Amino acid sequence: MKVIPVILSGGSGTRLWPLSRKDHPKQYLSLMGKSTMLQETILRLEGLDNLANPIIICNNDHRFIVSEQCKQINIENPTIILEPVGRNTAPAIAAAAFQSLMQSDNSILIILSTDHVIQDVEKFQKSIRLAIKQAKDGKLVTFGVVPKYAHTGYGYIKLSGETSRGVFNVEKFVEKPDLQTAQSFIENGNFLWNCGMFMFQAKTLIDELKIHSSEIVKSVKESLDNATKDLDFIHLEAQSFTSSPSDSIDYALMEKSSNVVVVPLDLNWSDIGSWSALHEIGVSDIDGNVIHGDVFTAETSNTYINANHHLVATIGIKNLVIVDTPNATLIASKDKTEEVNKILDQLEEKNRDEQYSHRKVYRPWGWYDSIESGENFQVKRLHINPKSKLSLQAHQQRAEHWVVVSGRANVINGKEVLTLNKGESTYIPLGVKHSLENKTTKPLEIIEVQSGSYLGEDDITRYEDIYGRE
Question: How far apart are CA 36 and CA 29, in angstroms?
Answer without folding.
Answer: 5
